[in-house]
Inverse folding.
């Protein structure tokens, strides 16, 4: 269930993950700490692209493409436009009075989230799907193992995610899908009404 | 590289975004930090749906015929989050522009017309 098999491939996957993750986090810190707002917006692009890389490592290739097209392509351009338009009034990137309490709150939340995600006993997919050569080990470990037909289904779904996403979007989540389209239409109309020249 | 690594990265990006939203005066930085928070949630949703067994697969509830597609629920959530984020940024930038035109400021601490 990993990207490749063998220790060498796993090592390469680990190195890739850490490079992407550290660049994403460092660029995110730069977004909130840099004095120059234009550079902060450019570092936001770095974070969003690195997160697209994380999506690829999670076998969510379609979502990675959506991330590149919408976030890196559209949203960051919109933010850069706003930065450039209001540049003459924004002197740097100052903090308000809540800087220290906000930092304490964010660090506390991070500590809680890390504690929870490390200490929870997750019902992992790799526990119920035995490796090809180690069926006996997985069965003797006491865990329930999926039957071969379900394992084949899981492999098919993870190999090509786009048909599965389309099924979910248009069957299980069709109401939210339609509500999303109405939301986008309302957002377009509202944005046009807000920035229209009134005089 | 396991589930915990992805969850920690998502939590870190969410916390950095939370710090930015709470502590910055410039409305555009607040919008960018909001994007960071959305992306932290996206990483968490996709990682959980990639690594954790959905309840329909192991027979905890009822075993559906095509329960394997439930593995993609997190990705569909992420798609909805990206949709809402796009609408939110379009409206947010429009509001910043409107405030900038009427008050010549982009600082959220200066936009206090509604304070009584």
């Amino acid at each position: 269930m990993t990207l490749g098999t063998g220790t060498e491939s796993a090592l390469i996957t680990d190195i890739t993950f850490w490079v992407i993750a550290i660049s994403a986090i460092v660029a995110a810190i730069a977004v909130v700490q840099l004095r120059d707002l234009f550079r902060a917006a450019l570092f936001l692009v770095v974070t969003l692209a690195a997160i697209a890389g994380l999506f690829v490592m999670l076998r969510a290739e379609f979502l990675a493409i959506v991330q590149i097209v919408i976030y890196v392509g559209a949203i960051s351009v919109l933010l850069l436009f706003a930065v450039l338009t209001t540049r003459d009034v924004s002197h740097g990137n100052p903090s308000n009075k809540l800087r220290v309490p906000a930092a304490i709150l964010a660090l506390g939340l991070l500590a809680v989230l890390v504690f929870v995600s490390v200490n929870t006993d997750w019902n992992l997919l790799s526990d119920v799907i035995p490796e090809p050569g180690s069926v006996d080990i997985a069965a003797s470990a006491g865990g329930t193992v999926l039957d071969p037909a379900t394992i084949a289904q899981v492999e098919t779904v993870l190999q090509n995610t786009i048909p599965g996403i389309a099924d979910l979007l248009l069957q299980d989540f069709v109401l939210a899908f339609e509500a999303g389209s109405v939301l986008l239409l309302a957002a377009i109309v509202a944005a046009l009404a807000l920035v229209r020249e009134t005089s | 590289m396991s589930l915990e690594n992805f969850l920690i990265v998502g939590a870190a990006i969410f916390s950095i975004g939370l710090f930015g939203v709470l502590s910055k005066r410039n409305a555009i930085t607040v919008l960018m930090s909001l994007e960071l928070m959305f992306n932290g949630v996206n990483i968490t949703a996709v990682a959980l749906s990639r690594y954790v067994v959905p309840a329909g697969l192991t027979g905890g509830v009822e075993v559906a015929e095509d329960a394997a597609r439930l593995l993609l629920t997190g990705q569909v959530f992420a798609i909805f989050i990206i949709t809402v984020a796009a609408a939110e940024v379009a409206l947010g930038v429009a509001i910043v522009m409107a405030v900038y035109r009427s008050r010549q400021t982009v600082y959220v601490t200066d936009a206090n017309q509604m304070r009584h």
